[in-house]
Write a structure and sequence with these properties.
alpha/beta; five-stranded mixed beta sheet; four-stranded parallel beta sheet
Length: 349
């Protein structure tokens, strides 16, 4: 059992939890289980999930950067104040946060048995898995001028309903397509702003919530196809390598193909086809993944909780807007230790 900031009230809660032999995963800063997901007999696996773009972006990284790079080499790169509607800069920030947190987790002895990403997070997952060499990853990031990325003038709309429910309504809204199957109660559509707004109004009439997201890109839809030249050019000159860690595709909801030409092809497909996060998480769970680590900020861990409700799992974020970066990593270490993994958070002190 691990308990942070032990007040009398929390100690009393911990005693009740232990006396009932009740698994407790994080609420009130308490972790306990007598049947660890990663220990015997389950021997569950750990998946790192790298987030994509979200409507809010507030990573807590200052102390993590200070710990990992005392010379501060990332301080001039990370800028959480960059507007989320600046798609190029926002994307780079998300990727750099993922890379730093992956390094911090590895330093603590927390390693992934599988990696995957949500939207642009799939690029970070490819880097973490070694599908790009370090030089190749740097070349890919440096090949994009974040202020000159050209994307179609279309908008995303987040919907509080499943992709199946939303899909039944798309036929009457020409130009709007599904871009993300996120969970049982969340999907995303994309299209010209007036068409997206009309769909959201119709959904609200049926009691379904929705909102236009603050960034535009057309990623994961056929509408991006005329704008792919820069992406094709960048990836054509960067070798893709067999991943060192099992790498899963959000397009296929299956592992990446084995050959470099197939990986290049999937890289482009990923930009044009919907993100299938819900079936991806289900497939990972079917293969034995029990701990889903959100390596970044955002809502992926909450989506995992919705998708796997009623099934044994732990979904936890490696970064949280509620506390400093190192404080959240200490809670990650606590959760992993309780679930049966050996960790060493002292290396971050």
């Amino acid at each position: 059992m691990v308990l942070f900031n032990p007040t009398e009230e929390r100690r009393a809660l911990a005693r009740r939890v232990v006396s009932r032999n009740q698994p407790w995963r994080g609420r009130n800063d308490l972790w306990f289980t007598s049947d660890p997901l990663l220990g015997a007999p389950h021997r569950g696996k750990v998946a790192f999930l790298f987030p994509g773009l979200e409507s809010t972006f507030a990573p807590q990284m200052d102390d993590v950067i200070e710990c990992l790079t005392p010379c501060g080499q990332f301080r001039n790169i990370l800028d959480s104040t960059a507007p989320v509607d600046a798609i190029g800069r926002h994307s780079l920030q998300v990727i750099y946060v993922g890379k730093l947190l992956n390094a911090a987790l590895n330093r603590m002895g927390i390693h992934a048995d599988a990696v995957a990403g949500h939207s642009i997070g799939e690029w970070t997952a490819m880097m973490a898995a070694g599908a790009f060499s370090d030089a190749g990853a740097d070349a890919l990031l440096n090949s994009f001028n974040p202020d000159e990325i050209c994307v179609p003038p279309v908008s995303f709309g987040a919907v509080g309903a499943s992709a199946d429910a939303v899909g039944k309504m798309l036929a009457s809204h020409l130009g709007v397509v599904l871009s993300h199957d996120n969970g049982p109660r969340q999907s995303v559509v994309c299209g010209p702003l007036p068409a997206v707004q009309r769909l959201l109004e119709q959904l609200r009439d049926h009691g379904i919530s929705g909102q236009v997201l603050p960034f535009r890109s057309g990623f994961h839809t056929p509408m991006l196809a005329p704008y792919l030249s820069s992406f094709r050019e960048a990836t054509s000159i960067i070798p893709m390598l067999p991943p060192r860690i099992p790498l899963w595709s959000g397009t296929l909801a299956d592992p990446f193909p084995a050959t470099a030409p197939e990986m290049h092809q999937l890289f482009i497909r990923h930009l044009l086809e919907p993100v299938r996060f819900r079936p991806l998480v289900k497939r990972l769970h079917e293969t034995g993944v029990r701990v889903f680590m959100q390596v970044g900020t955002g809502q992926l861990s909450a989506l995992v909780g919705q998708i796997l409700r009623g099934h044994p799992h732990l979904a936890i974020a490696a970064n949280s807007p509620r506390r400093s970066g190192l404080q959240q990593l200490l809670r990650v270490a606590a959760a992993m230790w309780v679930e049966g993994r050996t960790v060493d958070p002292r290396c971050l002190q």
